[in-house]
């Protein structure tokens, strides 16, 4: 049996990341992978990057990581309200000013995707890791998508499992005996419970078993720290679910 842990979308939330990493360690899982978006929205972007670097956790380039690493412009999204658009611009600007050059260089070197291959007995398992899709790190793919969407992703990637993040909403969906999975978000969940989420994949010669783990963390501490920083209070209210699950 082999177990791996996959997590995504930390978004500068160091307390949530520490809780997740401690839980992975407690379970004795040695292999950990991150699907990206280490920065923006909570005030520990540098500390999160440093922790991922220190533990040598393989990590993908999320869309927020890419924007900060390469100083890309922010495109307003029509689905966002005027209030959220203003908060988003301010939060990203905060990261651009506060993430160190060393950590921007770290982000700039992250790979776009990662393919894992495990051999257990006579069985070969292929695991495809992406931030959001095979061709973009900024595409929203939800559980409600037609099965064909996931079948095509699995076929193109020649994988038994594809794991993604980006939407901050976890799901597990089995299609033709294969799995499409969203690991959810460590630091900025859009699920109603706002818990820190990650994925455990357990593999043996016969099966892959995916389990979504959701954990409490000191959310109020994070919200207060946001309020004490230059990051808009909007994101403290978001964490407390005072504004609902805004996409």
TrEMBL record:
<dbReference type="InterPro" id="IPR029052">
    <property type="entry name" value="Metallo-depent_PP-like"/>
</dbReference>
<dbReference type="InterPro" id="IPR050126">
    <property type="entry name" value="Ap4A_hydrolase"/>
</dbReference>
<dbReference type="Pfam" id="PF12850">
    <property type="entry name" value="Metallophos_2"/>
</dbReference>
<dbReference type="InterPro" id="IPR024654">
    <property type="entry name" value="Calcineurin-like_PHP_lpxH"/>
</dbReference>
<protein>
    <submittedName>
        <fullName>Serine/threonine protein phosphatase</fullName>
    </submittedName>
</protein>
<dbReference type="GO" id="GO:0016791">
    <property type="term" value="F:phosphatase activity"/>
</dbReference>
<feature type="domain" description="Calcineurin-like phosphoesterase">
    <location>
        <begin position="3"/>
        <end position="205"/>
    </location>
</feature>
<dbReference type="GO" id="GO:0005737">
    <property type="term" value="C:cytoplasm"/>
</dbReference>
<dbReference type="InterPro" id="IPR011152">
    <property type="entry name" value="Pesterase_MJ0912"/>
</dbReference>
<comment type="similarity">
    <text>Belongs to the metallophosphoesterase superfamily. YfcE family.</text>
</comment>
